[in-house]
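Weekly sync, protein design subgroup
Attendees: M.S., D.O., the rotation student, P.L. (late)

Item 1: inverse folding check
M.S. brought a backbone from last month's batch and wanted to see whether the design step gives back something sensible before we order anything. D.O. pointed out we never logged the input encoding, so this time it goes straight into the notes. Structure tokens as presented (432 positions):
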């Protein structure tokens, strides 16, 4: 295990760990995985900088992803109303994220300083503060979501400062630009001597798209390139956070103009989803596609990384009992999904980002968080106990037949999503 960047002895965190130990006294391994993840994330990935902002590394990569960092601290939000230190940490992260958005809204991962680390040879508009510049819609969704959830779970509104407001305006501007990717976008990305999943076709422009009302994404939350430019789960997430921004603009800033801009864009993207993202499957009926291009092509799959089709109710995109979602859920949790693997040790969703037949713990946690079936949730908890490879931690992916074969022994997002699943199982939930 790596050396901590900043240790904590926070009482609220210790109390939560002790509460979960008590609740799972009869299943101590689950309690141990929870304790390891809940403590490891704050001790090894979270750093308060001199300007009181928060920098969060993803784990075994010394850079901060906008998506991962928000997801890593999300379970701590249940403590933010009781503990000022936790609230300050999350607020510091929101501030740091929004400063990065203003630095470059197309980038997905950043360095702690302008040290030139990361993928500086990529053919795109790189800079020394940027680790990677793969444009992903969800990279802009997550900071908006985190600021909103901090408000709803602690009552704080001080995170909604000028930085947050200017970054919000940049996000709306970029998403409007990328509604017209072919005609208006300044963005391109190429990585030489790399797998095709790491670079965009057409000299960095990506596969051809037509206008749909949705907004374009170069890459998926896995950091793999999109096959088709309209990534449906991320567009659905964008609708949710634009409605958050509408509420923030009205309630906190009393800015009717910005509120209307956010709502108008949300409605346009939503209409695009209704018109272009739903397909009729011969076995499952109406389901959401994973990607489309507005030219009649669809990619029917799901990926373990969030936003995913599986995660739609978790993100607030649909109700848990939404008919199209339930049809889609049956599809993605079946072998009709090319990345659903059935093995001797486990069955679950993986990703083209990792080797064939590798199941992701993130997907198992998300399956539990979105399940309405208590039996299914119990089986998933058993799977976690059986697939940690004796490490007391979750991983990125593990082989469906042999959990001792796994990727990324230190992957904080995965650990914290499991913690959230276990808390949710106990009725400890983040207010949305």
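Designed sequence read out in the meeting:
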């Amino acid at each position: 295990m790596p050396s901590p960047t900043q240790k904590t002895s926070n009482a609220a965190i210790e109390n939560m760990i002790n509460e979960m130990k008590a609740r799972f006294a009869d299943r101590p391994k689950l309690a141990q995985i929870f304790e390891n993840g809940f403590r490891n994330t704050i001790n090894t990935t979270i750093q308060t900088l001199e300007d009181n902002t928060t920098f969060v590394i993803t784990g075994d990569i010394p850079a901060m992803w906008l998506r991962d960092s928000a997801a890593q601290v999300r379970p701590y939000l249940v403590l933010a109303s009781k503990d000022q230190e936790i609230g300050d940490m999350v607020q510091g992260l929101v501030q740091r994220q929004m400063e990065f958005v203003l630095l470059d809204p197309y980038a997905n991962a950043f360095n702690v300083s302008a040290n030139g680390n990361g993928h500086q040879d990529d053919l795109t508009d790189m800079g020394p503060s940027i680790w990677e510049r793969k444009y992903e819609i969800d990279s802009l969704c997550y900071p908006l979501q985190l600021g909103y959830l901090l408000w709803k779970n602690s009552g704080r509104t001080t995170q909604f400062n000028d930085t947050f407001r200017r970054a919000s305006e940049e996000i709306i501007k970029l998403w409007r630009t990328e509604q017209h990717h072919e005609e208006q976008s300044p963005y391109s990305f190429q990585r030489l001597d790399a797998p095709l999943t790491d670079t965009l076709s057409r000299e960095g422009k990506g596969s051809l798209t037509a206008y749909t009302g949705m907004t374009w994404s170069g890459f998926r939350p896995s950091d793999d390139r999109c096959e088709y430019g309209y990534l449906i789960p991320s567009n659905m997430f964008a609708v949710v956070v634009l409605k958050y921004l509408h509420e923030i603009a009205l309630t906190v800033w009393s800015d009717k103009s910005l509120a209307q801009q956010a709502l108008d864009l949300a409605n346009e993207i939503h209409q695009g989803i209704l018109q272009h993202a739903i397909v009729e499957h011969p076995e499952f009926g109406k389901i959401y596609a994973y990607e489309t291009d507005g030219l009649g092509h669809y990619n029917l799959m799901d990926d373990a990384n969030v936003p995913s089709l599986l995660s739609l109710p978790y993100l607030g995109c649909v109700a848990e009992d939404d008919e199209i979602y339930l049809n889609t859920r049956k599809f993605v949790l079946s072998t009709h999904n090319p990345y659903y693997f059935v093995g001797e040790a486990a069955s679950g969703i993986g990703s083209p980002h990792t080797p064939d037949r590798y199941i992701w713990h993130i997907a198992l946690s998300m399956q539990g968080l979105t399940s309405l079936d208590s039996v299914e949730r119990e089986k998933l908890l058993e799977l976690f106990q059986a697939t940690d490879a004796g490490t007391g931690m979750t991983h990125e992916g593990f082989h469906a037949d042999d959990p001792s074969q796994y990727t990324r022994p230190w992957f904080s997002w995965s650990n914290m999503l499991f913690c959230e699943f276990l808390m949710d199982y106990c009725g400890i939930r983040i207010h949305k």
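Discussion: The longest strand covers residues 278-281. The radius of gyration is 20 Å.
Action: P.L. to compare against the previous round before Friday.
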